[in-house]
């Protein structure tokens, strides 16, 4: 029996509010059933239905100004004028009759690659002194990191972390090039002795948060050791930072923002957060009595909570979140930092702004059951798109009069009553998020959507489909580190390949990424 009811088969006089509501319930149940089918198909390795279509709010052409590149690092370059020439071959005509005058050359450049092993054998001379002491030649610095040179190590890191080449395929590729390497050696090159890269990744986050007025955030699933986990992205137009963890709670997000620090801080900001979260006055009094206090690590913090009798789960959660936020601000992050997200609750700290595209999707998913409902939906969507365009124009030229006008337009649009209760409920939910959707009126520099973060996190979606999960803690850490560094390099206009060679060779010709982020921030202010 077909359980789907066609709206056209129901006479108009029978389309009562109850019938329409039941049809809406059926639609919602059908969507939930389809979602579960898609999840089952994914787990079985089958393909699911196509993803939701892109929002019509943002079109690539709208954001690009004339002459601007499509994305960082994509600016057009002259193809051959600045090429380094490694070999020049003169070619004369087959026959040159007598009496001709030489008129120069017509250059024709061919770009090629030399992919072949280049093995060096160092023969360390040994000399014995009259006293019997043995003097031995010393390896150059470029050979002290192991039996694989900087270019071979850089190639391996680039292929795996940037090119998404799986470890078995990379091993086969190296063998076909004539490189004698085992799977164990390859694994060690990918994950071991990467402290200098981990340190630079930590600097990227600390500096990015310090100099930024806003960041965009998102997360996605990232399996580890066969278990579900998550990866969080934090970034803006200057940097990208990724961190994988077991959970996606607010506690987890605050720990990521805290960076390399391990302390918990009771200060004015921490107490203000706790009070806003509804912490009981008796606990607030206890905490205020501590004054401004820093707890060095989790052990000291947990001991304090136990000694004060703060043992309830909700109480411990609120005070720990507050102390983590206190630490974040204590270490240099401004309380006015705007967090732009897709309305995931764990990101709702400091000043929170919402993505308009996610808000618009709640309307885009609505199915109209009557012609009047369809007209209402189209009218509302057209007004929303127009409001969005005017908000974009406001960002370029903020104006107090326009600000008041846009606030009134927002209220009028999202308090509209239509013939669809489903549409009315969606409008009401959007209106409840007014402060976060219109934060751009106070902070015109923040983006209206979260596309940057969503695009960045796709790197993990691709890797998840190709390689599944990471197996070792070192592997997971390196995945986060090199993804952070390569994405930041792209935003800063740095070749990731050249960056790897510079860091592996300890040349120092490419500045620290944190310094480049500071330069970008200073340039933006100027």
* Structural class by helix and strand composition: alpha/beta
Total helical segments: 20
One letter per element, helices H and strands E, the order comes to HHEEHHHHEEEHEHHEHHEEHHHHHHHHH
So what's the overall shape?
globular
- Unreliable stretches (pLDDT < 50, length at least 5) are 1-8
Note down, in words, how this protein is organized:
The structure is a single chain. The chain is an alpha/beta fold and 526 residues long. Among the domains are: 126-191, no CATH class; 195-350 and 451-525, no CATH class; 372-441, no CATH class. It contains 20 helices and nine strands. It has helices at residues 17-44, 60-63, 150-162, 167-177, 183-191, 195-211, 250-258, 268-276, 281-288, 298-307, 313-330, 356-364, 371-396, 400-414, 421-432, 434-437, 451-467, 473-491, 496-504, 513-525; strands at residues 126-128, 134-136, 214-221, 230-235, 240-245, 264-266, 293-295, 338-341, 351-354. Strands 5-4-3-8-9 form a five-stranded mixed β-sheet, with helices on both faces. Strands 1-2 form a two-stranded antiparallel ribbon. Strand 3 (214-221) and strand 4 form a beta hairpin. Helix 6 (195-211) packs parallel to helix 20 (513-525) and helix 14 (400-414) packs antiparallel against helix 15. The termini are far apart. Mean pLDDT is 88; it is low at 1-8.
């Amino acid at each position: 029996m077909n359980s789907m009811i066609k709206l056209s088969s129901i006479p108009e006089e029978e389309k009562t509010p109850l019938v329409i509501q039941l049809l809406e319930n059926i639609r919602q149940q059908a969507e939930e059933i389809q979602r579960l089918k898609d999840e089952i198909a994914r787990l079985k390795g089958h393909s699911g239905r196509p993803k939701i279509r892109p929002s019509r709010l943002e079109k690539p052409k709208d954001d690009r100004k004339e002459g601007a590149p499509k994305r960082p690092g994509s600016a057009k370059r002259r193809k051959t004028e600045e090429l380094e020439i490694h070999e020049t071959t003169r070619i004369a005509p087959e026959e040159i009759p007598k009496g001709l005058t030489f008129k120069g050359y017509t250059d024709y450049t061919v770009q090629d690659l030399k992919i072949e092993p280049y093995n060096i054998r160092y023969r360390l001379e040994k000399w014995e002194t009259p006293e019997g002491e043995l003097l031995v030649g010393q390896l150059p610095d470029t050979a002290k990191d192991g039996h694989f040179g900087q270019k071979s190590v850089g190639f391996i890191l680039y292929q795996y972390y940037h090119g998404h080449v799986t470890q078995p395929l990379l091993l086969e590729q190296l063998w076909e090039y004539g490189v004698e390497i085992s799977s164990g050696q390859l694994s060690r090159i990918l994950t071991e002795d990467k402290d200098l890269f981990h340190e630079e990744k930590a600097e990227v986050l600390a500096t990015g948060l310090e100099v930024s007025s806003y960041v965009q955030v998102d997360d996605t699933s990232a399996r580890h050791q066969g278990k579900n986990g998550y990866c969080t992205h934090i970034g803006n137009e200057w940097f990208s930072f990724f961190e994988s963890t077991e959970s996606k709670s607010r506690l987890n997000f605050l720990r990521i923002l805290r960076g390399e620090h391990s302390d918990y801080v009771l200060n004015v900001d921490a107490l203000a957060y706790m009070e806003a979260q509804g912490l009981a006055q008796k606990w607030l009094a206890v905490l205020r009595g501590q004054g401004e206090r820093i707890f060095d690590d989790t052990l000291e913090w947990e001991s304090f909570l136990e000694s004060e009798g703060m043992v309830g789960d909700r109480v411990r959660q609120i005070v720990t979140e507050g102390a983590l936020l206190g630490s974040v601000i204590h270490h240099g992050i401004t309380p006015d930092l705007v967090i732009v997200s897709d309305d995931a609750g764990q990101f709702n700290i400091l000043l929170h702004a919402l993505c308009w595209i996610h808000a618009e999707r709640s309307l885009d998913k609505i199915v109209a059951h009557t012609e009047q409902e369809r007209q209402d939906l189209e009218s509302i969507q057209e007004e929303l798109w127009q409001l969005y365009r005017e908000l974009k124009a406001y960002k370029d030229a903020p104006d107090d009069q326009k600000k008041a006008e846009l606030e009134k337009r927002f209220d009028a649009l999202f308090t509209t009553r239509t013939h669809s209760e489903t549409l009315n409920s969606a409008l009401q939910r959007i209106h409840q998020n007014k402060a976060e959707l219109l934060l751009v009126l106070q902070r015109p520099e923040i983006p209206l959507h979260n596309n940057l973060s969503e695009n960045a996190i796709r790197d993990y979606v691709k890797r998840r489909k190709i390689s599944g999960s990471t197996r070792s803690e070192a592997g997971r850490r390196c995945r986060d580190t090199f993804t952070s560094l390569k994405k930041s390099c792209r935003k800063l206009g740095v070749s990731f390949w050249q960056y790897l060679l510079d860091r592996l060779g300890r040349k120092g010709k490419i500045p620290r990424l944190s310094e480049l982020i500071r330069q970008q921030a200073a340039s933006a202010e100027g």
